[in-house]
């Protein structure tokens, strides 16, 4: 069923709300922005995510879809208040848990025919509109959890939103969704936090030796603790179950290593088994979320820790007509070198790499 989205209201202009608003703007959709924090709306607007929603537009404006992008515990109240105002034809949310907000919406007496809950499996460890990216959802899975009451038209509107954001819709029952994301998102977050917590009393020597491995394993641990508390408490039992299994594996690995340290060579087998199960599990993750190639390619360049290096790098990009979409710096503390990661369009990457090599820059 085709569903045109001409005007979309985004309530909650943080990371996810702003990202989807930017994606919709690129497709020519009119986007109205609302947040309980006026600063967040202002910044999202300045970033080009849309126009501030004026409450008196409520009746005048025909809003096709309202997207509720607030913390999970606020979704049902927000839905009720929007529906009471007759704000939009259809409603969705993007919360990381699904069963509890839907149950809560039903308890509050929300209209479940016009509401279809959803959840993009894409995000960052940063919050707020400034972290928003139009390409955040490209090729990523986006769960959609229609209830039995949901109308076909509401479902079509949410599918159109997902299509406009370049994501892949995955229809799944809300309870199954929550069990699934406990394994692939929520328990991994707690595990990353536990590993990262070990770093709070690590020595300067240890921190100075931090390489890419620890950065990869702990990146998500940088996420907002308030938001994550809301996510984890909204999916507590399934997450606890996964963490119990992870704890069991970790406890077995620790006791095998203790035995090894005490000279028991037979403990090798247990450790190898866990490592092999890890490889097998890792291999089951679909390639880049099963979607198309990422929008940008990263070109890595070694830069000396001297003033002006980054400026010279950007100057070369300018000379060869390469637009830098994003830049990230990896610094090894105490070392005079770092790595700049420049995200560029796929066809610009070889051009930039060649230009840098010709100018004697080192590409790892
Ligand atoms: N962070 C991620 O990686 C990620 C990924 C997918 C889905 N989600 C889900 O998206 C939602 C938003 O997360 P985020 O990362 O964008 O958080 P965020 O903190 O960046 O933004 C949330 C915004 O909602 C606003 N807000 C809170 N309560 C509100 C209310 N009652 N009415 C209006 N505005 C309100 C806040 O002021 C803030 O600007 C959450 O439900 C989260 O579970 C997050
Ligand atoms: O990539 C990240 O930074 C994320 O935290 C993204 C991530 C995930 O676990 O994949 C986190 C929570 C969301 O509900 C959806 C996506």
UniProtKB/TrEMBL annotation:
Keywords: Amino-acid biosynthesis, Aromatic amino acid biosynthesis, NAD, Oxidoreductase, Tyrosine biosynthesis. Its EC number is 1.3.1.12. PROSITE patterns: ACT, PDH_ADH. Residues 298-364 form the ACT domain. It catalyses: prephenate + NAD(+) = 3-(4-hydroxyphenyl)pyruvate + CO2 + NADH. InterPro entries: 6-PGluconate_DH-like_C_sf (IPR008927), ACT-like_dom_sf (IPR045865), ACT_dom (IPR002912), NAD(P)-bd_dom_sf (IPR036291), PDH_C (IPR046825), PDH_N (IPR046826), Preph/Arog_dehydrog (IPR050812), Prephen_DH (IPR003099). Transmembrane segments: none annotated. Residues 6-290 form the Prephenate/arogenate dehydrogenase domain. One of its GO terms (molecular function) is prephenate dehydrogenase (NAD+) activity. One of its GO terms (biological process) is tyrosine biosynthetic process. Pfam families: PDH_C (PF20463), PDH_N (PF02153). Pathway: Amino-acid biosynthesis; L-tyrosine biosynthesis; (4-hydroxyphenyl)pyruvate from prephenate (NAD(+) route): step 1/1. The keyword Oxidoreductase applies. The keyword Amino-acid biosynthesis applies. Belongs to the prephenate/arogenate dehydrogenase family. This is Prephenate dehydrogenase. It comes from Nonomuraea glycinis.
